Amino acid sequence: MKVKKTGFWENHRWLQIILAIAGVALIVNLAKDTLKLFKSAEKLKSAQQQVEELEKEALSLMEKKEYYQSDEFVEEEARNKLNMVKEGEIVVILPPNVKETLGKTELKQEEILPYWRQWLNLFL
Q1: pTM passes above 0.70
Q2: How many CB atoms within 10 Å of residue 78?
Q3: Rounded-to-integer distance, Cα 105 and Cα 114, Å
Q4: C-beta separation of 37 from 30 below 8 A
Q5: Tens digit of each residue's pLDDT (9 = 90 or more) over 73-90
Q6: Between the CA of residue 11 and those of 3, 4, 124, what are the distances in Å?
Q7: Are 47 and 83 in contact (CB under 8 A)?
Q8: Is the pLDDT confidence value at 4 over 70?
Q9: Which string of DSSP letters, residue by residue, matches 26-94?
Q10: d(CA 28, CA 18)
């Protein structure tokens, strides 16, 4: 009579099942972690792009701030909005309907108001 020798794994079938379940669980967990890693990389890339856009916007705002604080801007606003001039310059005020007026042969000369009146009209 021959005795059949069996291996360790054949005698412990329940151990094989537990190891198989543990292996599947490890594979599933590794797949989830890998997916999270890819999503995190996408979020990081998106955040970096947003930071770059905000830095560009901040630079643009700083340039605008410097321009608005410059003497050049103050002078331009004084000329355009308040009709102020430097000494020796002449103010030319065009009528609001300049296109219609240029089409006519007869041009009417508007009365230039004194500065105090222009200021009064501006605020009232």
Answers
A1: no
A2: 13
A3: 28
A4: no
A5: 998 888 888 878 888 887
A6: 15, 12, 103
A7: no
A8: no
A9: HHHHHHHHHHHHHHHHHHHHHHHHHHHHHHHHHHHHHHHHHHHTSHHHHHHHHHHHH----TT------
A10: 15
H helix runs in 83-124, sequence order: 98-103, 115-123
104, with CB counted inside 10 A (0-12, 13-18, 19+), is exposed
Cβ proximity of 78 and 84 under 8 Å = yes
C-alpha to C-alpha distance for 35 and 107, rounded to whole angstroms? 77
Nearest to 110 by CA among 124, 97, 123: 97
| Residue with tokens 């990081």, as numbered in its chain | 44
Are the C-beta atoms of residues 83 and 91 closer than 8 Å to each other? yes
**What amino acid is encoded at 57 in this protein?**
E
